Amino acid sequence: MASAQTTTDALPDSRTQYPAFLSNSYFGLGAGSINYPFSGRQLESGFRVESVDVHHPAVRIVLFGHRFHKYLSAQVGYTRPVQWVSYNHLNGDDSSHSVRIAMGDVALKSQVPITSRVALYGEAGIAMVSQTGFTIDEAPVVAHKRFGAPLVGAGLEYSLNPTWDVVAGATFVRRIGQPIALGSLGFRYNMRPLPAERVQEARDAGFIFPKHLVQLSFVTNALGYGLNNAVSSKAPVFWGGDVQVARGATVRYQRNLFHTRSRLALDAGLSVSLLKSDSVGENFLAVSAYPLVRWTFLRTTAADVFLSYSIAGPSFVSRRIIDRNDTGSRFSFQDLMGIGMFVSRSRNIFVQLDISHYSNGNIFSQNPGIKIPATITLGRGF
After folding, report:
1. Would you call 45 helix, strand, or coil by DSSP?
2. Do the beta carbons of residue 225 and residue 279 sit within 8 Å?
3. Are 270 and 313 within 8 A, CB to CB?
């Protein structure tokens, strides 16, 4: 059932069309196979290994891309394997140690249409690769590394409709002694300007999407970290962390940038959090800017129920060493996942249960991650 549209807005809702800075932009997700040379050759002197497991399944995310022209785009991407490389039975013992590797890249991309739906693309740019090794008794076994290298790639795109594309391709990062090759298949969501009739239909639908949201959140580990662990391991759709937060509070502001007729909303947000770690009890501050997608999957007379998800919000964390863990840098990324509902007749009051995570995405050698447990969020829209 539609929620009644508020009558307080003097001007018609302009958020049913993509804003200028998002128009002709895109993001994407792909899965595939990654290959890189890991063996006993990476071990420091004095160590030997019985076996090395190189796991090939990987994901590549296009965090943001923009199409400047029919033939030219630019994009920012992130790639990592699903499982880390494992070094097993070092010097004859029963140990197993992980080597983490992740890659961020910035690339220019050119598309050449072959048919009305199929295009050939090529890309070239720079990749920043981060390798997190490990130590035993403070002695380095596999070294930490960070390096930049040229990136090239090519593939095919198939347009399902103006909004969705299927993309298949191969990407190569060339560095002497440590090349990386990735083949992937995935999808791309395009934010192309919407036709006038669709924009007007969304405006006239009568569903409420508050333009501004002010929120106050309360963090507590009173219920433990079971929810965090479930969505980071049993159903890996989120992230955990070795640094655990016991309690805290967050103030958030979100501005709605775009919404569809009744389901999807895209917000930009700012947040300030004061948090206390669980082990040592250290206080620290986290300040974030972030994008957030909200999907309203159920609308009733009493409430509109939604899921929210945010990824890779640039953040500043005031402590680098938390609970004796080196987080790698004060620069981090915030991720957030929650479920909530808008209530009241005008749908301007909402409550949400969410969890959060801070980490640097393995762009630095140290990245234990910060786990934020169950958070109760109360908010008001206007």
Report:
1. coil
2. no
3. no
Distance CA 271, CA 42 (A): 41
Whether the CB-CB separation of 185 and 32 falls below 8 Å is answered with yes
In a 3-state reduction of DSSP, which class is residue 246? strand
Question: Rounded to whole angstroms, what are the CA distances from 254 to 48, 295, 296?
Answer: 53, 15, 16
Per-residue pLDDT of 33-63, as tens digits, reads 999 888 888 888 888 889 999 999 999 999 9
Beta-bridge partners for 171: 153, 182
Q: Give the integer Cα–Cα distance in Å for 124 and 119.
A: 17
Kindly tell me the sign of the dihedral angle through the C-alpha atoms of 12, 13, 18, 21: positive
What are the structure tokens assigned to 139, written together? 């002695």
* pLDDT tens track for 339-367: 999 998 889 999 999 999 999 987 787 88
Which letter does DSSP use for residue 198 in this model? H
Which one is predicted more confidently, 362 or 305?
A: 305
* Vertex 263: Cα angle to 289 and 191 (nearest 5): 60
> Which 8-state DSSP code applies to residue 213?
E
Q: How many whole angstroms separate alpha carbon 194 and alpha carbon 15?
A: 11
Rounded to 5°, angle at Cα 272 from 266 and 274: 140
Helices (H), the chain: 196-204, 226-229
Distance CA 265, CA 222 (A): 31
- Residue 13's DSSP bridge partners are none
Distance CA 367, CA 382 (A): 38
- β-strand pairing of 57-69 with 72-81: antiparallel
User: CATH second-level architecture of 25-191?
Assistant: Beta Barrel (2.40)
The pLDDT score that the predictor gives to residue 11 is 60
Domain boundaries, the chain: 25-191, 202-381
CB neighbourhood size of 146 (10 A): 12
Are 27 and 62 in contact, with CB atoms under 8 Å apart? yes
The reply to whether 25-191 and 202-381 are identical in fold is yes
Residue entry with tokens 């018609």: 12
Question: What's the CA gap between 124 and 92, in Å, rounded?
Answer: 44
CA torsion through residues 360, 364, 367, 370, sign: negative
Angle at CA 268, nearest 5°, toward 192 and 351?
120
> Going by C-beta distance under 8 Å and a sequence separation of 6 or more, which residues neighbour residue 7?
none
CATH architecture for residues 202-381 = Beta Barrel (2.40)
